[in-house]
Amino acid sequence: MPEGDLSFPFAAVYGMEDAKRAVLCAAVNPSIRTVLLRGGPGSAKTVLSRAAGGLTGKRVVNVPLNVTEEMLFGGMDAEATLRDGSPVMQRGLLARADGGILYVDDVNLMDQRVLAALLDCVASGRVIVEREGVSGEYSCDTLMIATMNPEDSDISPHLLDRFDLCAYSDFPDEDAEGRAEVLRRNAAFVNDPAGFRSQYSEEEERLRSSIARAVRILPLVTMSDELLGVAVELAARVSADGFRGDIAMANTSMALAALDGRDEVMRRDVEQAAMICLAHRRNYSQPPPPSEPPEPPEQPPEEPDEPDRDRQDPPDRPPDQKEGDDPGESREPLEMPDMPEDLSDLVDEMMFEIGEQFRVIDYLQDGRRIIRTTSSRKGRRAMAESTDSTGRYARSRIPEGRVSDVAFDATIRAAAPYQKGRDRGDLAFAIEKQDIRRKVRERRSGCTILFLVDASGSLGVRRRMAAVKGAVLSMLRDSYVKRDRIGLMAFRRDSAELVLPPTRSVEYSYRKLEELPTGGKTPLGQALVAVGDFMTSYSRSHPGESCYIVLITDGRANVPVREGSDANDEARKLAADLAIPQVMWIVVDASTGYIRFDNAERLAEELGGTYFRLEDLNADRLADSVRSVIGA
Q: What does the alpha-carbon distance between residue 614 and residue 616 come to, in Å, rounded to a whole number?
């Protein structure tokens, strides 16, 4: 511990077990080089990150949010260049982090091009500088701990995958005693920092001894082929791309075993490792493989070829019999027949309660774009380039025309190499027109999410609409917390209706959702036309705002826009031709049954959007997947 260090003790941080476990594993295993802590504001992410320096005795180097590439990686040393008359390289912040801990707060707000380069440097342990006429290389053997608030723009999935470990610092609101304990510890630390540290000095020393012992044991730790297979299966179940997740699982499992004083990995190590290695790598666009082959359904007895409506089903049996109930039909093309007119009438004007709610994933970011991309925005509150002098100075650019916002630092760097050859007269420094650089400023864009909900009769069977309402309310509340505007449009019978214009009132949204009836046919084509007209007008009146349409449907259209057309084919064609500026699509498949039909997924492809199944929106499903594989 650095002398005179009065930072909050690592051992005194209440809760956050996954986050602590991630930091300890990184302190033990040098193969773990990047740790990401995700959580809302005030959830002790920064406190824990800085406490890691006191625990390990390593220097913590902070990366400021407005850091430039020159400051971070290195570039031309203007003073030395002026003195020597030739370009001289200056090392960046990463040189100071060599052998220590690099702390990056709000990493999601960093320019993703710069973040990609930073992750490359940390992974390789070397920084190579080739810019502004200077070149050089230096060591950067560091542990990077980054934090982010998911309420702001997220990190693109391919960069998120490059973080070895990711832990969530969500604190349960219902833990009143825990929150009280946090207050007590915070008050004690503020009143007497030195005395508070002394209370936890014994536990801190125990953790340091545990880390030192684990570092010695780590080279001796082995992992059986059986547990390697379990790690691979877990990565497959979350459809993780590449092998980074598998490798991180093995490295973390061995670190956990070493921290426990063992030279052999056990199943509980793999289970704990999965929670911090795979949650951020989960690919929601791919269905997880089943843990074991499902038993085939029993062969039904042969019956005369009669329409379904002539057969008496039990009252709780859904009126639209799924093809999956007949094994023979699973070999047919995955086309769901339209719900017969008389069966739609059976669920006409039903009112379903709002079903179970849950903690949702960041569905605007976590999915994979299927075919075409319509935008390069980073997330729901992406940093958009400012058109005036407001916003954060992000980088510089060679100007076009008149300049009112001069980037003096970049201008001086551009002029520095040419000072010896210029006639400066009485000036200490000569700047010419070609040296001028202008500031590029960024500010956060707003975000609007319109939920387009299928309220037709096909969602009424098996009480699927109750689950849909529960999911929609969960997403509405998540959007409210993130200060998004939220709207609701529903389609049923032969039209689509704007139930709720974009608003920030979750209470009003709840009432509208609760009162939403279910029944009738599925006018999917009409819904696409209606939402296209509305969002085109909305996006034009809100320039620079990120807009999303979350379409929740089983994808089964049966009301064509043009009479005589095939409703499903027409809906897909409308989706393919639909282009709304500033708008991105998320399609949530609300269908159910043993056999999944691809109507909604094909619709997502045509829209160029992201595809989820309804159950994939539940953020707690990963823990269930881990338990099913581990057998806990």
A: 5
Q: How far is CA 554 from the centre of its chain?
A: 25
In tens, the pLDDT along 15-72 reads: 888 999 999 999 999 999 999 998 878 888 889 999 999 899 899 999 987 787 888 9
6 beta partners: none
Q: Give the residue from 450, 446, 538, 551 showing the smallest Cα distance to 500.
A: 450
Q: Which two tokens stand for residue 454?
A: 């299928």
Q: What is the mean pLDDT of residues 226-248?
A: 89
Is residue 364 in some structural domain?
A: yes
Is residue 332 over pLDDT 70? no
Beta-carbon contacts of 172 under 8 Å, excluding residues fewer than 6 positions away, are 178
Extract the runs of DSSP E, i.e. beta strands, from 53-106: 60-63, 74-76, 89-91, 101-104
Which CATH number do you get for residue 271?
Answer: 1.10.8.80
Q: How far is CA 259 from CA 9, 29, 228, 443, in A?
A: 19, 10, 19, 44
Nearest to 340 by CA among 314, 310, 308: 308
49 assigned to some structural domain: yes
Residues facing residue 497 across a β-bridge: 490
pLDDT at 2 over 90: no
Q: Mark whether 521 and 376 lie in a shared domain.
A: yes
Tokens of residue 578, six digits: 């639909």
Report the distance separating Cα 376 and Cα 113, nearest Å: 12
What backbone torsions phi and psi does residue 361 show, to the nearest 5 degrees? -70, 170
Range of the domain at 4: 1-171
Whether residues 100 and 244 fall in one domain = no
- DSSP annotation of 241: -
The whole-angstrom separation of Cα 476 and Cα 482 is: 10
Q: List the helix and strand counts (H, then E) for the chain.
A: 21, 18
Q: Kindly report, residue by residue over 112-162, the tens digit of the pLDDT.
A: 888 999 999 999 999 998 876 778 899 999 999 999 887 666 677 788 899
